[in-house]
């Protein structure tokens, strides 16, 4: 701890003549007249600007709209996320996830078959195509009776894959 306060640290860098000139420049002068009276008069002389007030009905309407939106979102969330039915799509019962997956799988299978576009298979492979088509129809019928069966969905996937593989083998042979 440094207790020696007589050291002149950092003050020797200015010459004495410059230091005296700097001291001479500093002068405290009081203003010649009272400035506050003039400032107060100018403040009073300025016309006050009136702010436009927003209509008072906006805040309650905005709160009501927010409340309606919140109730609608919660209601939609609790109903399973299904919105109103589109015109022309009358659904008496809701399709299960497995049924929706089967429908999507069928659409993908049909699109793949159109892309492969084999036309008429050879006569020796026609019974295999017929058997796979009959199996797919049976599985779809069974899914209509048991809409939550993942086993049937997996069997449908395998049947479509075999049918598509056979069609590709014919098309690319």
Keywords:
mainly alpha; 60% helix; elongated
Describe the model.
The chain has 173 residues and is mainly α. It is built from 6 helices and no strands. The chain has helices spanning 16-25, 36-45, 58-78, 97-116, 126-145, 150-171. Helix 4 packs parallel to helix 6. The termini are far apart. The model has no long low-confidence stretch (mean pLDDT 79).
List the uncertain runs: none
Return the structural class.
Answer: mainly alpha
Helix fraction? 55-70%
Rg (C-alpha, Å): 44 Å
Mean pLDDT across all amino acids: 79
Question: How is the topology of this model organized?
Answer:
Blueprint: H1 16-25, H2 36-45, H3 58-78, H4 97-116, H5 126-145, H6 150-171
Helix pairs in contact: 4-6, 5-6
Describe this structure in a few short sentences.
By secondary structure, the protein is mainly α. 60% of the residues lie in helices and 0% in strands.
């Amino acid at each position: 701890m440094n207790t020696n306060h007589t050291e002149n640290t950092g003050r020797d860098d200015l010459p004495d003549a410059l230091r005296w000139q700097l001291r001479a420049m500093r002068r405290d002068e009081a203003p010649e007249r009272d400035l506050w009276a003039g400032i107060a008069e100018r403040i009073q002389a300025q016309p006050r600007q009136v702010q436009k007030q927003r209509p008072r009905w906006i805040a309650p309407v905005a709160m009501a709209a927010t409340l309606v939106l919140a109730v609608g979102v919660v209601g939609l969330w609790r109903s399973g996320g299904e919105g109103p039915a589109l015109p022309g799509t009358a659904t008496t019962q809701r399709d299960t996830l497995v049924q929706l997956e089967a429908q999507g799988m069928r659409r993908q299978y049909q699109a793949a078959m159109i892309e492969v576009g084999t036309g008429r298979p050879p006569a020796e492979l026609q019974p295999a195509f017929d058997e796979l088509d009959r199996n797919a129809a049976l599985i779809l019928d069974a899914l209509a009776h048991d809409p939550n069966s993942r086993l049937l969905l997996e069997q449908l996937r395998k049947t479509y894959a075999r049918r598509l593989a056979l069609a590709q083998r014919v098309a690319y042979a």
